[in-house]
């Protein structure tokens, strides 16, 4: 499916590791997913809307990281680094938001923006 | 142990004038300001952070002088608030965070690794410039910030203070800290990339000196946590400058969210401060005990464990700020868990010293002081990490004493230990041991005199950040009966700060005197087996003329004292063989 011009596991290779064909396919997929994002935002999907939007966003981010940022062609070490950073971010957001949700009802007066 | 292809280094044992070294390689101010040499960048950082330490120290003395007697001694409450804020901002962002990694780390990481420079020398220079620019931007707020260095919302967004003139400094300080954060990230990137990519043949992970493990763990934290500080500060600027309302409940925001953001960086930042300090202690304790380090792998992995666990304890700064109970319980538990890798290090250092041939010079005295004060700082953290006692002790002088024992006691003592340990290598001159030991004595006694009474003050309820402890204000707080006690303890604490200041001035005098009048240092004055002591003092521009021989970094066998050079050489190394 892909043609790798030169291995760049050291990260120091000057040659581009991803073929033009793959890059075109990826950008076309990204544009299609953007269209899907717009469509999903326009449709009334109820509570599932946010999850569908997040799923599309995650797919787009993955494509960018894997192909445009070459993660797919690099050594496993970089994937581990990225996963650690993501894990840290998710943990931070989960704990902060969980904590915030626990006392939202105590915040007084009720947020004007949210109630309007 | 030595690699087959590596050639041995020839130690320079003659006392002839210093020739080609990084100090004399090029001349002129511009050759320093735009240098790509990690050693020169390390020295420039050293100048910068020592100036910040001096500045922060002046603010500290102003604080202690104000508290030496009741009422307005030197300044009023508003001015006091600004002075302690500046003390915190300068000491944390400009001294302690870059203090060890950017100075000693920059200077010694490549040499200890056996490399010629860091992986990205230009980024290294950029990080120094960003540090200087950030520091200047932050200091433009010199007359207008009274939030404390934590910049807590809603006060810092002006909603509570109504935008008083004293709040004008919020944006410059946050912008300055934001820029300095980039400097910190670049240093971390450089350290990690250098350790991964530039290890010479034979330098396996477990042959790296423990200082490098510590700097690696520090780099991980710098890269993962510092961006969050950047985001936090930008959100704060957006809130304050444009009324965005992220942290404003009236607009659906949440002020405690700011504390989550802030401490998600600032607690790991404590480990940015302390991990490299621990690396120094590992080197100094082993070298000056003339004994192989005890528990190498445990110390190495405990650095990574501290870096990992340190990421998940930020909530212990927020036990009484309205954080949910479940979060409190989780953070309290994780806080206790950090004690395990910290204690592993302390026990291994003590085991290294056990039956060692301890050389009680200035570096070792500072290292032993580190273990003493860090242990006190750590154990008092147990009180603060417990949910019940924390309610009693939060925002009292107990907290002030605790974090000064950890940060000043820990980091500064280790920094001084490292500075005395590596000074002969950095500048090729030996300092007066007697002078340095007098300086150490005053700093150590002064430090404990300053901060130990503050534990007692806090235990009796004296709140922090008050510029007065007189009868009137204490009556309002319900501490009328303690006024006399508070007065005595504040007096002792202030006297201690003056003793410390004199000690630091003596240390500065001794080290600066050594630069100009000090006896020329041999290549290896302490008998350390790590690689930096195999190159000449000061090191040449490219660190190593030939590939260094890599072996066990703590193998002392064969290192013998040579009377002629008054330094250590490898046995049978008259011609320079360094067997690994």
Low-confidence stretches of chain B: 1-18, 159-163, 574-580
Strand content of chain B: under 5%
Major beta sheet summary of chain A: none
Indicate the low-confidence ranges of chain A by residue numbers.
Answer: 1-13
SSE ordering of chain B = HHHHHHHHHHHHEHHHEEE
Average pLDDT confidence of chain A is: 80
Report the count of strand segments of chain B.
Answer: 4
Element string of chain A (H = helix, E = strand): HHHH
Q: Please give the alpha-carbon distance between the first and last residues of chain B.
A: 5 Å
Classification by helices and strands of chain A = mainly alpha
Per the CATH scheme, the topology name of the domain at 33-270 in chain B is Cytochrome C Oxidase, Chain A
What would you give as the CATH superfamily of the domain at 33-270 in chain B? Cytochrome c oxidase-like, subunit I domain
Return Rg of chain B in Å.
24 Å
Number of DSSP strand runs of chain A: 0
User: What portion of residues of chain A is helical?
Assistant: 55-70%
Task: Write down the overall geometry of chain A.
Answer: flat
This entry's quaternary arrangement is heterodimer
> How many alpha or pi helices of chain B?
15
Structure class of chain B: mainly alpha
């Amino acid at each position: 499916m892909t043609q790798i011009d030169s291995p760049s596991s050291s990260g120091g290779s000057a040659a581009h590791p991803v073929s033009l064909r793959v890059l075109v396919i990826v950008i076309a997929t990204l544009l299609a997913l953007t269209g899907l994002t717009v469509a999903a935002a326009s449709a009334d999907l109820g509570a599932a809307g946010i999850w569908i939007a997040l799923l599309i966003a995650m797919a787009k981010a993955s494509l960018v990281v894997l192909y445009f940022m070459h993660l797919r062609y690099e050594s496993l070490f970089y994937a581990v680094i990225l996963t650690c950073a993501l894990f840290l971010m998710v943990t931070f957001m989960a704990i902060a938001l969980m904590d915030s949700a626990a006392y939202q009802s105590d915040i007084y007066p009720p947020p004007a923006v949210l109630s309007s | 142990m030595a690699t087959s292809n590596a050639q041995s280094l020839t130690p320079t044992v003659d006392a002839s004038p210093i020739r080609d070294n990084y100090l004399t390689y090029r001349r002129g101010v511009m050759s320093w300001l735009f240098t790509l040499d990690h050693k020169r960048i390390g020295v420039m950082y050293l100048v910068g952070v020592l100036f910040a330490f001096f500045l922060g120290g002046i603010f500290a003395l102003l604080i202690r002088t104000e508290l030496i007697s009741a009422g307005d001694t030197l300044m009023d409450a508003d001015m006091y608030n600004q002075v302690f804020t500046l003390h915190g901002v300068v000491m944390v962002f400009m001294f302690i965070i870059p203090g060890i990694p950017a100075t000693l780390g920059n200077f010694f990481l490549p040499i200890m690794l056996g490399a010629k420079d860091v992986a990205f020398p230009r980024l290294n220079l950029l990080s120094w410039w960003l540090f200087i620019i950030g520091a200047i931007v932050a200091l433009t707020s010199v007359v207008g910030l009274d939030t404390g260095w934590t910049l807590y919302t809603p006060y810092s967004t002006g909603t509570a203070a109504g935008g008083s003139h004293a709040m004008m400094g919020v944006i410059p300080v946050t912008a300055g800290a934001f820029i300095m954060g980039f400097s910190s990230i670049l240093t971390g990137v450089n350290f990690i990339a250098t350790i991964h990519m530039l290890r010479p043949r034979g330098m396996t992970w477990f042959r790296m000196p423990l200082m490098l493990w510590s700097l690696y763990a520090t780099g991980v934290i710098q890269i993962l946590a510092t961006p969050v500080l950047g985001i936090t500060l930008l959100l704060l600027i957006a809130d304050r400058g444009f009324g965005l309302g992220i942290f404003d409940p009236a607009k659906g925001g949440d002020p405690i969210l700011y504390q989550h953001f802030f401490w998600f960086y600032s607690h790991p930042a404590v480990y940015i401060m302390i991990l490299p300090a621990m690396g120094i202690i590992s080197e100094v304790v082993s070298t000056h005990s003339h004994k192989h380090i005890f528990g190498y792998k445990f110390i190495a992995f405990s650095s990574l464990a501290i870096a990992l666990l340190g990421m998940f304890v930020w909530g212990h700064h927020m036990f009484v700020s309205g954080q949910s109970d479940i979060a409190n319980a989780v953070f309290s538990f994780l806080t206790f868990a950090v004690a395990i890798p910290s204690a592993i290090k302390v026990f291994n250092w003590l085991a290294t010293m056990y039956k060692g041939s301890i050389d009680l010079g200035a570096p070792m005295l500072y290292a032993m002081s580190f273990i003493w004060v860090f242990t006190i700082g750590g154990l008092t953290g147990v009180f603060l990490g417990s949910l019940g006692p924390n309610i009693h002790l939060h925002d009292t002088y107990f907290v002030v004493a605790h974090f000064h024992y950890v940060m000043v006691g820990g980091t500064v003592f280790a920094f001084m230990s490292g500075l005395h340990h590596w000074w002969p290598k950095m500048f090729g001159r030996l300092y007066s041991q007697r002078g340095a030991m007098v300086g150490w004595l005053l700093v150590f006694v002064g430090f404990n005199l300053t901060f130990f009474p503050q534990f007692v003050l806090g235990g009796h309820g004296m709140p922090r950040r008050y510029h007065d402890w007189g009868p009137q204000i204490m009556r309002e707080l319900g501490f009328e009966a303690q006024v006399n006690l508070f007065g005595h303890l504040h007096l002792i604490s202030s006297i201690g700060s003056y003793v410390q200041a004199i000690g630091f001035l003596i240390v500065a005098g001794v080290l600066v005197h050594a630069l100009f009048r000090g006896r020329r240092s041999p290549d290896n004055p302490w008998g350390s087996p790590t690689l930096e002591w195999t190159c000449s003092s000061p090191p040449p521009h490219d660190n190593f003329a030939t590939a260094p021989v890599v072996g066990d970094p703590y193998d002392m066998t064969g290192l013998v004292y040579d009377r002629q050079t008054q330094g250590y050489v490898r046995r049978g190394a008259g011609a320079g063989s360094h067997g690994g």
